[in-house]
Amino acid sequence: MPYQPPVRDHLFLLRDVLQIERYGDLPGFSEASMDVVAQIVEEAGRFTGEVLAPLNSVGDKQGCTWHADHSVTTPDGFKAAYKALVEGGWPALGADKAYGGQGMAHVVNLSFSEMSSSANMAFSMYPGLTHGAYSAIHTGGSQEQKDLYLPKLASGEWGGTMNLTEPHCGTDLGLLRTKAVPQADGSYRITGQKIWISGGEHDMAENIVHLVLARIEGAPAGTRGISLFIVPKFIPDAEGKPGERNTVFCAGLEEKMGIHGNATCVIQHEESVGWLVGEENQGLRLMFVMMNEARIGVGLQGVAQAEAAYQAAASFAKDRLQGRSLTGPKNPDGPADPIIVHPDVRRMLMDSKAVIEAGRAFLFWTALHGDLAHGSPDEAVRQKGSDYMALMTPVVKGFLTDRGFKVCSDAVQVHGGSGFTEHFPVSQYLRDCRIALIYEGTNGVQALDLVGRKLAAEGGRGVMGFFAEIDAYVGAHENDKALAPIIEGLSHAKEELQDATMWLMANGLANPDNAGAASTDYMHLFGLTALAYMWAMMAQAAQAKIAAGDTDPFYATKLTLARYYVERILPETSAHLAKLKTGSETLMSLPAEAF
Question: Pick the catalytic residue: 280, 440, 478, 585?
């Protein structure tokens, strides 16, 4: 069965769980009623399912082609699909109306992005990175830069990239060597090589705008001396149209295990013409606007690939005949039962479905707080939204991609030997998903960021606010008998997360290795607790529908999945807490030569 966009699940979250109609008077939400949002989500499902999904395997098998003139050709059908994407206005959905966007809330735009990534992850990275470039210029660019670049980036007519990594430095950007030499006309000449640049060259947009980190001559060493530059493939002429070809080239394509349909380029800057964005030596701060948006997008990719892989596995499990049910034949007229009757296959499918649905809710909930941080007239709401966006971003990126990859791996396992072949789609989902654990900061780096920076930010205001919110929710629903097991599970997980947080505060400062050793377990403990909170809210919304007389099995399924999550997945929090509290002594005890 081909990928089916989960439109109803998206609308359940937007309408019944997050109740976005409550924010109808705020920017982004006032642009469309819930009925209009429903139409957008339904059309997004049609476009991604009918236009993008059929090209997923094509892109995987064909890949991109580099030519001697430094041009790159995308797989068959990509160019036409990109044209349809732009003509449909999808890249502009969440962009500023002042620059040709539709001004929709980010949480609504996220719905389209998830379905796009499930349908075709490699393709969806092109407009995804373009929006990141748009956001960085929108935040730090001059008015002239905004007027020139944002309308084209918002529409998707021009593509965008982020040029960070160099052959000798990845995460440690303080080591970068790309240099920028100021010119008399206010421009700069950029020289250096960047690698692993997604969408760095292709044939789908008339121009590509590279956002490049470089060091101006004489700037301080390390991250304090990094500046951000706009380096377009074609320098805009007096009318703002692509003009002279800049001296920035694709020197080759990376050979990758997945996302073959995306052109991952080696980009060579040979005194290419660039313009400073914002102030000198403030480039990393501005690039983090783009990187943080990308990190949310990468967490989304974990959920998106998991959804597609789960659908394929569930379909296979219902059709594949193998063995008999332990409790007697369920397909007595056939030679064997479908493998979905076997408890261990059910375990993998239930694990997957429970994590995907709560992971999606966590994404949407986090995005909603980002919208409130920008648009609420209430200062306290804006502060909370900002705190949550900072705190949750590494969890969204790290936890959801780790769990998303596990779902993809379990989908291969459900397929058995068939899953290890290229005749079924799950092998591609597994290969494509693997990069999400690495780029935009590896998951280990995300965990370090969480415990090293985000927990202590503003005196711990974000995490303490999260604890208080869960406590208030538990207090409001602790007498609800229908939700009792779920509320009890959430309360226990929150207590363990709080215990872990206190342990880190007591032991991490005294010995930083303790914080480092605990970081990944803490991130997973946090993610498991956050998903328990999501399941509590989804169960509450489903129970309300059932109490009102709705007999649709959709809602009963939500309650079953919530109970399953609490009983079979949430107990992992205790193991993470136990490992976390062992500290770093054993972990760091072996000398390097023993490895």
Answer: 440
